[in-house]
Design brief:
The complex is a heterodimer of chains A (275) and B (159). By secondary structure, chain A is an all-alpha fold. Chain A has one domain. Chain A is 75% helix and 1% strand. Chain A has a two-stranded antiparallel sheet. The longest helix of chain A is centred in the C-terminal third of the chain and has 46 residues, at 181-226. Chain B has one domain (38-158). Chain B has 159 residues and is mainly alpha-helical. Chain B has helices at 6-136, 146-158. Chain B is rod-shaped and about 195 Å long. The A-B interface holds A 21, 27, 29-34, 37-38, 41-42, 45, 48-49, 52-53, 55-57, 59-62, 64, 71-72, 75-76, 79, 91-92, 94-96, 98-99, 103, 134, 137-140, 142-144, 146-147 and B 1-11, 13-18, 20-22, 24-33, 35-36, 38-39.
């Protein structure tokens, strides 16, 4: 999980963790770009898209091979989940759920890579910082949640028309009386905004905490490097705890992707319902 | 941890991935699965149809065999009856023929007897005449006593 690499950049555990939590940045102020987040998420999106495209291109009505069978298994699972929640033409919903599920799993899985390996490779290529986990960057999760927010609004307008949607803003849930317009609008705004915020924050919080725990576990190993008292115990503890947490983290990787897949479908399904 | 322009880039990446899945991934996989479901359903239906055809053919074959067996039994019965009839009629015609042969033989024997008796009677008549003429030592006029002689001969023939 850890190597001497982290120690090169900082002598204290705090330095190590701060280094691991620093993005490779370009730009200033708001117009700062996290190069690591963008590159990792984009290349994983390409990887996921390419794998599924390769399966989709070869899929036919004949007997499927192992690869196609696996992809169809994933597809069937997602399709079943969507079908339980969303009634109607669900082609777009399946595309949304499938892309969210597979992409988030791919990104979350980066957390299981040896902690210092991506940073080590990046430093060999000349980058001082490299955070490998795009879902532990609030920008990454909020971006997906905002796309989902736009889709919710779009679905609601498509189902009810612009007039119907605006009418719902002022009249639901308390009623159409003009005195109730303001409370209605406030409540609707809270309801609408809470969805992307909870989506984005949940995934971010889970992955950030998981990443942080990997760093803390990795710190145990530095006792070996420093040759302080109890170093052997620390080394063994690092391996045991790191393994245990990695195994447990597989659950979080898939579970968070599953939650982020199902909730947008639920939200969009709700948005299309008439109040 | 701060939100910055990165999320714009992330939104674009996600939007592109979503569009790619919607345009190129989901339709072919959904199509393939639907096609396969249809194919499997057709295969199952065909298997069921084949089973039904087989059952029908079996029952048809059974009825054909049963019919053939019945027909064979009928033919056997007929043949037995026919042979019995033939034996019976042969027996009957044989006994009729035997009776006829017997009757013929009897008639022949009766004829022979009558003929022998006739010739015997004639001989006895002439013998009686010759004996009488010898007794009387004279010739009997055959013409004169013809009536008497004939009567005698008749009596002899009858006795």
């Amino acid at each position: 999980m850890a190597s001497a690499h982290g120690a090169e950049h900082g002598t204290t555990p705090t330095d190590y963790i701060v280094h691991h939590l620093t993005h490779l940045k370009v730009g200033e102020g708001f117009w700062t770009w996290h190069v690591d987040t963008l590159l990792m998420s984009a290349s994983l999106a390409i990887l996921v898209g390419w794998v599924f495209w390769a399966a989709a291109r070869r899929a036919n009505a004949g007997v499927p091979g192992k690869f196609i069978g696996f992809i169809e298994l994933v597809y069937d699972f997602v399709d079943g989940q969507v079908a339980d929640i969303y009634h109607g033409d669900r082609r777009f919903m399946v595309a949304l759920a499938l892309s969210l599920f597979t992409w988030i799993i791919a990104m979350n899985t980066m957390d299981l890579l040896p902690l210092d390996l991506p940073g080590g490779i990046a430093s060999l290529l000349g980058a001082q910082f490299w955070r490998v986990l795009p879902t532990a960057d609030l920008n990454g999760t909020i971006a997906m949640a905002l796309v989902v927010l736009l889709l919710i609004i779009f679905a609601a307008i498509r189902a009810k028309g612009v007039g119907g949607y605006l009418h719902e803003w002022v009249s639901a849930p308390f009623g159409g009386h003009p005195l109730l317009w303001v409370p209605n609008i406030i409540l609707n705004a809270v309801e609408l905004l809470s969805k992307p915020v909870s989506l984005g924050m949940r995934l971010f919080g889970n992955m950030f905490a998981g990443e942080l725990l990997f760093m803390l576990i990795a710190l145990l190993g530095f006792m070996v490097v420093d040759a302080t008292f109890g170093s052997a115990a620390g080394f063994i503890g690092q391996i045991l705890l790191g393994t245990a947490w990695a195994i447990f983290h597989i659950l979080i990787v898939v579970l968070q992707a599953y939650i982020f897949m199902v909730l947008p479908v639920v939200y969009i399904s709700m948005a299309e319902d008439h109040h | 941890m701060t939100v910055n322009a990165t999320f714009i880039g992330q939104m674009i990446v996600f939007a592109l991935l979503l569009w790619f899945f919607y345009a190129f991934v989901v339709p072919p996989i959904a199509q393939a699965i639907t096609d396969r479901q249809k194919k499997i359903a057709e295969g199952l239906a065909a298997a069921e149809r084949g089973q039904k055809d087989l059952d029908e053919a079996k029952s048809r074959a059974d009825s054909v065999v049963r019919e053939a067996r019945e027909r064979a039994n009928q033919i056997l019965d007929q043949a037995t009856r026919r042979s019995n009839e033939m034996v019976d009629s042969a027996k009957q015609s044989a006994s009729v023929e035997g009776d006829r042969v017997l009757a013929n033989a009897r008639a022949e024997a009766a004829n022979e007897t009558a003929r022998a008796r006739d010739s015997l009677r004639r001989e006895i008549g002439s013998l009686a005449v010759a004996g009488a003429s010898r007794l009387l030592e004279r010739e009997i006029d055959a013409k004169a006593h013809a009536q008497l002689l004939d009567k005698l001969a008749e009596e002899i023939a009858r006795g």
